[in-house]
Write a structure and sequence with these properties.
Elements: H1 2-11, E1 19-27, H2 34-40, E2 48-49, H3 51-62, E3 67-77, E4 80-89, E5 92-93, E6 95-101, H4 108-112, E7 121-122, H5 125-141, E8 147-154, E9 157-164, E10 166-174, H6 182-187, H7 193-198, H8 201-207, H9 217-228, E11 238-244, E12 253-260, E13 270-271, E14 274-278, H10 285-292, E15 299-300, H11 302-318, E16 325-331, E17 334-340, E18 343-350, H12 357-360, H13 374-387, E19 390-398, E20 405-414, E21 420-427, E22 440-449, E23 456-464, E24 468-478, E25 485-498, E26 501-514, E27 520-533, E28 536-550, E29 561-571, E30 580-596, E31 600-616, E32 626-628, E33 640-642, E34 644-655, E35 663-675, E36 681-695, E37 699-708, E38 718-725
Parallel strand pairs: 1-4, 6-9, 10-12, 14-17, 18-20
Antiparallel strand pairs: 1-2, 3-4, 5-7, 8-9, 11-12, 13-15, 16-17, 19-20, 21-22, 21-38, 22-23, 23-24, 24-25, 25-26, 26-27, 27-28, 28-29, 29-30, 30-31, 31-34, 32-33, 34-35, 35-36, 36-37, 37-38
């Protein structure tokens, strides 16, 4: 380099014994300020320097990256030595820009904030490096590792080139003979560009997000987690990414190659006198012997032993015991298969930054010292999901394959948004002679759930129909003062119009519900109700009790689990505040059964409610009725108020696995009706398709068409409907 050659020839003799430099000057500066450079070398001025010190001084200037050459010259003056640095600046950067090849996994605006390269100044190689590293770090921090960041300088413009690579597919290479890896591949729930482009275009619009095809550290970790469940892969198994050019595909892509090196139990085939199983406590040895399919005296290969080991692991998995591992060893002429069952050593939380642990600790079903069970993962995650306290929840075991103890980590994402807007709106074609808008009935709720981490929920609700309007405020808190219950309070005001008579209804109440144990919970409540209208004022005390059982995987849209609710309310009990006296009964039973993995399920519901034993002290008082609308009515029929009603529903639910927002396709059959009693309903039977979209903060929006089987096969029997709220 010109700088170093000139430097050594000029200074070797002069600074062998040390000199003092009184000033540093520059020749050749055009866009770089001398003051900026002098600040960097201020510690080298007016001090005794050797040749090494002068080298360090000059190197600090050169390392700014602004210069293509630097020639030092030592000048003797009356005031001492002056070091003059003759520099040649790099070309001037008139502008810079970022070019992204890919879907902009990180927005350009965000990437631009990482660039420190200055415009209208000499190109600084150091600032280019710093900018490239900062851009790459943004991708690293977001988990994207399959990204190239380069640069190019053309005609005064520096171009930062970002190339994002999608995952095309996963392939197995190496020692694959005798083994079927297709099942392993199916378990790798990772999105690929190949799957994206083989999905029909119309479905792709609704269900696929191409950004999901760009792998992250987390998604590749899930792939490695799947591999760790199989004994086939030896220590020398490796993975690497190979760039690919896919005809007809614009995106840059790479394939994940898994180079299989089989675990070696034996080098060649062998005959064993005995095959034994050890370490098993949860399943008997005789039961496991029938699984491995290895017999004494049988000639077995290394692959056959691996298959036997994997059969044991798979069998435990089928029984609901995950993460079990099997090792093999030869003991004289016996093949010993050691089963490493897993037991819970501890449970820890990660991400629980707001919610207090005592609020949710009863929902954790893992017990220290107990066997690790798949059911506990489902029960714990489902229970935490049903609280609606959290944005995301996951649970996973941490431990080594040959250990019997594992730690369970529960990863929680606290909600960032503090308010939810949801409710229910139903519309069905109104009866003849009414306007189209008379088919609407709606309820809207603004709620904040667990805003302070103590399990409180606040909600304000409003309902609007043609004959009634209401406003309510509800409050509940889970485990207040660590009590084993949820306590709640209610205030509600309702205004109804019936036959030109206006009634105002005021309700104040409180309730409690026991904590759910293995899905079971009990509740009770008391409500004071005052009604005032032109005919008088009524005061009523209403007592209620209920039992519920809930194992649904999701309270908004379930694909698995069961739900049962039975409730009874009694107005005017014991003759206290009994201007109104009646019994109200409600039963709601639901079942959700997966048919294919977690994508296809069938759902059933039976719902019934009725009023019994009514009496009113004030003559002419408006009688009690029950409103049937939304999920409590037959789809495609109008909302109605009546004394009793029931609905039976069956649905086939398909989760499109949308990568944008959850979308479900449904085929349904509803049968039910309302009337003066459950034994005398006006029966309606409808069936049809429906599409439900689960939107954060809004709940489920459903669109569908119901055909009413009334015996008249006409086009008019097709009734479009819309609903907004929760699915059953």
């Amino acid at each position: 380099m010109k700088f170093w050659l000139t430097f050594f020839l000029t200074f070797f003799a002069a600074v062998s014994w040390g000199i003092v430099i009184s000033d540093v000057t520059f020749t050749g500066l055009e866009t770089v300020e001398a003051s900026e450079l002098l600040f960097l070398v201020r510690d080298y001025v007016n001090v005794d320097l050797t040749d090494q010190g002068v080298q360090e001084l000059a190197k600090k200037i050169f390392d700014t990256g602004y210069f293509s050459s630097l020639e030092p010259e030592l000048i003797s003056t009356d005031k001492g030595y002056v070091l003059n640095l003759k520099v040649q600046e790099n070309p001037v950067v008139t502008d810079w820009k970022i070019e992204v090849t890919g879907p902009e996994l990180i927005k350009k605006d965000n990437l631009q904030s990482a660039v420190v390269l200055e415009k209208n100044r000499a190109l600084s190689i150091e600032k280019v490096k710093e900018s490239l590293q900062a851009i790459k770090k943004k991708f690293d921090d977001a988990g994207y590792f399959l990204v190239e960041v380069n640069g190019d300088f053309k005609e005064g413009v520096y171009i930062f080139q970002v190339i994002e690579y999608a995952l095309w597919e996963i392939y197995f290479d190496g020692e694959t003979d005798g083994l079927d890896f297709s099942q392993i591949r199916k378990q790798m729930k990772i999105d690929t560009l190949k799957d994206f482009y083989t999905t029909p275009s119309i479905l792709r619009i609704f269900t696929k997000d191409i950004k999901r095809c760009y792998p992250t550290i987390q998604s590749i970790s899930s792939v490695m987690s799947v591999l760790s469940k199989y004994v086939y892969f030896g220590e020398e198994t490796s993975i690497n990414f190979e760039k690919m050019d896919i005809p007809g595909v614009d995106e840059k892509a790479a394939a994940l190659k898994i180079n299989v090196s089989l675990r070696k139990i034996i080098d060649d085939g062998k005959v064993y006198d005995n095959v034994e199983i050890a370490g098993n406590k949860l399943i008997s040895s005789s039961e496991l012997q029938s699984i491995i399919k290895l017999q004494p005296g049988q000639y077995v290969s290394n692959v056959e032993i691996l298959k036997a080991m994997q059969n044991l692991i798979d069998y435990y998995d089928e029984k609901g015991y995950p993460m079990v591992f099997v090792t093999a060893q030869e003991k004289e002429n016996t093949l010993l298969l050691n089963v490493h069952e897993k037991y819970v050593s501890s449970v820890e939380f990660d991400g629980l930054s707001l919610t207090k642990k005592y609020v949710i600790d009863d929902l954790i079903t893992f017990e220290k010292g107990e066997a690790l069970k798949e059911k506990d993962f489902y029960d714990t995650i489902s229970a935490l999901n049903r609280t609606q306290f959290f944005e995301s929840i996951s649970a996973y075991p941490v431990g080594t394959s040959d250990s019997t103890e594992v730690k369970v980590m529960i990863n929680i994402g606290e909600k960032q948004r503090k308010f939810d807007f949801n409710g229910g709106i139903a519309w069905t074609p109104p009866s003849e002679g009414k306007q189209w808008y008379e088919g609407f009935y709606g309820e809207v709720t603004l709620a904040t759930i667990n805003p302070f981490g103590y399990g409180q929920s606040f909600s304000i609700s409003g309902t609007l129909g043609l004959s009634s309007r209401s406003f309510s405020f509800e409050y509940s808190v889970r485990k207040p003062f660590e009590l084993p219950a949820t306590l709640g309070a209610l205030f509600k005001y309702e205004n109804t119009t019936d036959d030109s008579s206006v009634t105002n209804i005021l309700q104040l109440g409180g309730n409690f519900t026991t904590l759910r144990r293995e899905g079971h919970a009990f509740g009770a409540g008391v409500t004071y109700e005052q009604r005032y209208s032109s005919i008088g004022t009524e005061n009523t005390l209403i007592l209620s009790g209920n039992y519920s059982y809930d194992t649904r995987d999701n309270s908004i849209f379930a694909m698995n689990g069961k739900y049962l609710y039975t409730g009874v309310s009694k107005a005017g009990l014991f003759g206290i505040l009994d201007d109104r006296s009646y019994w109200k009964l409600r039963v709601d039973a639901r079942m959700f059964m997966p048919l294919y993995e977690d994508s296809l399920s069938v759902a059933f519901r039976a719902f019934a409610t009725t009023l019994l034993g009514e009496s009113y002290k004030i003559s002419g008082a408006t009688e009690e009725t029950i409103l049937f609308y939304g999920i409590d009515s037959v789809r495609g029929t109008s909302s109605v108020k009546d004394k009793a009603g029931w609905v039976g529903s069956a649905e086939l639910r398909y989760d499109l696995k949308s990568q944008t927002i959850p979308i479900y396709l449904l085929a349904f059959v509803d049968v039910g009706g309302t009337g003066e009693s459950l034994l005398q309903p006006d029966i309606n039977v409808t069936a049809g398709p429906e599409m439900d979209i689960a939107i954060p903060m809004l709940g489920v929006i459903g669109f569908g068409v119901a055909y009413n089987f009334d015996g008249n096969w006409t086009f008019d029997n097709f009734k479009p409907f819309f609903r907004f709220g929760t699915a059953f």
